[in-house]
Amino acid sequence: MSDASVKLQGWDESLATGNSRIDEQHQFLFGLVAEMSLLREEPREHSYVPLLVTTVASYAAVHFQEEEEIMEQSGFPLREAHQVEHQALTGWLAGFPSEYEAGRASLKDVVSHMQSWIETHIRQSDTLWVEHLKSLKA
Ligand SMILES: [Fe+2]
Ligand SMILES: [Fe+2]
Questions:
Q1: Which of 4, 46, 95, 120 has the highest CB neighbour number within 10 Å of its CB?
Q2: Residues 6 or more apart from 20 whose CB is under 8 A from it?
Q3: Contact 6, 115 (CB under 8 A)
Q4: What would the mean pLDDT of 109-137 be, rounded to a whole number?
Q5: What does the DSSP assignment read for the chain?
Q6: Nearest ligand to the C-alpha of residue 17?
Q7: Is residue 10 part of a domain?
Q8: How does pLDDT run across 60-109, given as a tens digit for each residue?
Q9: What is the whole-number distance in angstroms between the Cα of residue 114 and the centre of ligand 2?
Q10: In whole angstroms, what is the distance from residue 47 CA to residue 76 CA?
Q11: Which structural domain, as residue segments, surrounds residue 123?
Q12: Nearest ligand for residue 86 CA
């Protein structure tokens, strides 16, 4: 069992937004978190952790930008609040490598934070703009 083991829940149909491109990106993000959970908190892999977290942050930024463009183009009224949620994760991830290097954050911290953030954000927030898009097409 790896040191970063938390009860990992992968992507499942209950998290589907109905937007296939966005769903693929969400699945990929869950996959990256699963990859992180397989690492071990040991010196041999220590330098790899900040690198992987930075890679996850880059991918998340691309995903967030794509969502924000969709929200802007569709006139989603809660766009700014949604962007604030995205910025919260982006900021947390940006601060992680230095916290990790200083020994104030662990691999388990980033895995559990990412896991719960992604799941909560998809269920409570991404579904809102997806519903907004559907209402425009109705
Ligand atoms: Fe999303
Ligand atoms: Fe989002």
A1: 4
A2: none
A3: yes
A4: 93
A5: --TT--------GGG--S-HHHHHHHHHHHHHHHHHHHS-SSHHHHTHHHHHHHHHHHHHHHHHHHHHHHHHHHT-TTHHHHHHHHHHHHHHHHHHHHHHHTTSS-HHHHHHHHHHHHHHHIIIIIHHHHHHHHHHH-
A6: 1
A7: no
A8: 999 999 999 999 999 999 999 999 999 999 999 999 999 999 999 999 99
A9: 13
A10: 41
A11: 16-137
A12: 2
Ligand nearest to the backbone CA of 26: 1
Q: Which residues surround ligand 1, an ion (CB under 5 A)?
A: 126
Centre of ligand 1 to C-alpha 44, Å, is 33
CATH code for the domain in which residue 101 is found: 1.20.120.50
How far apart are the CA of 26 and the centre of ligand 1, in A? 6
